[in-house]
Specification:
- The chain is an all-alpha fold and 128 residues long.
- The chain is built from 4 helices and no strands.
- It has one domain: Helix Hairpins (Orthogonal Bundle).
- The longest helix has 40 residues.
- The protein is globular, with a radius of gyration of 19 Å.
């Protein structure tokens, strides 16, 4: 396995950034999650969220993005293994990994609402 190991941290980081770029280019849901994360963070700054709240939002959004990356890897591996032919086991693996992403996204949205909704309500009350 040493044949495929990178010899430097820089090369490893380049391979990793290439993977992120590939995911961004080819995975529609990954792009959607990135856009949602950016919107949530802009909203958090606009609502003057505290540093810890922003850190929590960054962590939960990162968790969703990582889950989406793992889901994509599972889909690629299953497609390669089954040579893009239908298999119930392949479908189960893909559905379960997509379910994991959905669970992460729902929990991230709930956390964002818990952290940001009270601030939004306070602003609305102040102006009305």
């Amino acid at each position: 396995m040493k044949k495929y190991q990178s010899k430097s941290f820089i090369k490893s980081a380049l391979h990793a950034s290439n993977g992120l770029y590939l995911a961004f280019r080819t995975q529609k849901n990954f792009r959607k999650h990135i856009i949602i994360a950016i919107v949530v963070l802009i909203l958090a700054f606009a609502l003057r969220a505290r540093t810890m709240e922003i850190a929590i939002l960054v962590a939960t959004n990162t968790f969703v993005l990582v889950a989406e990356l793992v889901n994509s890897v599972i889909e690629f591996v299953m497609d390669a293994y089954y040579k893009n032919k239908y298999s119930r086991l392949c479908k189960f693996a893909k559905d379960i990994s997509a379910g994991a992403v959905l669970l992460c996204a729902i929990s991230s949205a709930i956390i964002a609402l818990i952290l940001l909704l009270p601030r939004f309500i306070d602003i609305v009350k102040y102006y009305y």
